[in-house]
Amino acid sequence: MSNHRAAKTLSRRDFLRVGGAGLAGATLLGAAGCGGGQQGGGPANVIFSFGPDESGTLQELVDRFNREHEGEIRVEYREMSRVTDEYFDELTSDFQAGATPPIDVIGGDVIWASEFADNGWIEDITRRMYADYSPRVPDAFLQAPITSCSFDNKFWGVPWFTDAGLLYYRQDLLEESGFSEPPKTWDELKEMADRVTQDAGVKDGFVFQGAEYEGGVVNGLEFIWNAGGNVLTGNITVNDPDKPIIVSPNVIQIGSEKSARGLQIERSMIEDGVSPQEVVDFREEDSLDAFNAGDAVFLRGWPYMYQIFGQEGQVDQGQVGIAQLPVAEEGMRSYSCLGGWNMYINGESPNLDAAWTFVKYVTAPEQQKFRAREGAFLPTLTNLYEDQEIVGEVPVIERGGNIIERNARSRPITPYYSDISSRLAGTFNASLRGEVSPEEAVDKLQAELENIAG
């Protein structure tokens, strides 16, 4: 999301809005940028794109890399738009125009891999991955982030930092109303919300993101998945590059009773008075503000929000519990939608080896650990969730890391995701508003998605 907009100063809240903002089209993180380089004699010039970052951690890593590779490789940071959709448009315009010099390394949203790969815009890095992360590439990373990098039985990116949906709840108020643990099902959430709002005089029971945008898609998917429904499936397993497998085609599955049940549960939050009607227009900022002001018992949110509790608003971290998202029936598996960012390499880069060297550097354990401790960027490497320095200094990992590891699930992996997302956003929002029934919504989406990607 090249960009000549003036950079806006980020507030503390904007800085902490890590991966959730990226997928919901809000503020991105990055660092002050540099202009494009010129190829020729001397060190290989690698242009790296991402958004503005108040933390300074990314610029620090770029500076460290340049010192360590002085005379061989020099990375120049190109600052892009802070809004995900605009960043995407800027990149696609550059790809289509064959911009010179090209961006070599792209810090990109997890949902971009398949679309960029299908258009031939990013490099197939499967052999590089197996050479440098052998013998088991997938085992080095959390499952959902590495899955987001795979398409057509190949790897197209390296997981950089991650995110996943969490249920925040007022632990203090639940205990005062006699509840010793968070809800496991949506019915339990409704029961708890009803009692606590009456006992404590809290305005609303549950707030989430229901507006017509990518965040609304994410929330709708979670309601569908946690009712046993699905949207689109396909074989995305990556095996040894010398032993390719036959990849099954995408199968559209949203037109089912289970998917309709998920959207009905979402709508029932308003119908049953658990959530305010205004959630149909809520984004991250709105839902966070409501919960942080003490006006809600439960909040569906992102990990970055935990850092804000105690710094703004009326609610501090000691009052807030973290749990997995509820499900339709006890015993069902809970899923959280994956957010976060990957590292991609431009297929037209004249410096593929140098670009790969930089990607390996910024995604390595030492650099992921530095960014986690200094900027609360959640790592993608599995073993870092057992690193006691990270666990001790990033509270949301200590309290919710197992949910992020176990429950995260990728949005549909398809080169048509942009078109699919647009349809999902509009229809999910119409269902939430009561303009169409959940059954009508999933039937409509089944036909539309089959037309797009079937």
Please give a quick description of this structure.
With 454 residues, the protein is an alpha/beta fold.
Structural account:
It contains 20 helices and 14 strands. It folds into two domains: 12-163 and 338-409, D-Maltodextrin-Binding Protein, domain 2; 165-337, Periplasmic binding protein-like II (D-Maltodextrin-Binding Protein, domain 2, 3-Layer(aba) Sandwich), CATH 3.40.190. It is globular and about 70 Å long. The relative contact order is 0.17. It is 43% helix and 14% strand. Residues 1-39 and 235-247 have low confidence and may be disordered. The strands form four sheets. Strands 1, 2, 3, 6, 13 and 14 form a six-stranded mixed β-sheet that branches. It has a four-stranded mixed β-sheet with strand order 8-11-7-12. A two-stranded antiparallel sheet has the order 4-5. With 454 residues, the protein is of the alpha/beta class. Strand 4 and strand 5 form a beta hairpin. The longest helix is centred in the C-terminal third of the chain and has 17 residues, at 417-433. The protein starts with 11 loop residues before the first helix and ends with a helix.
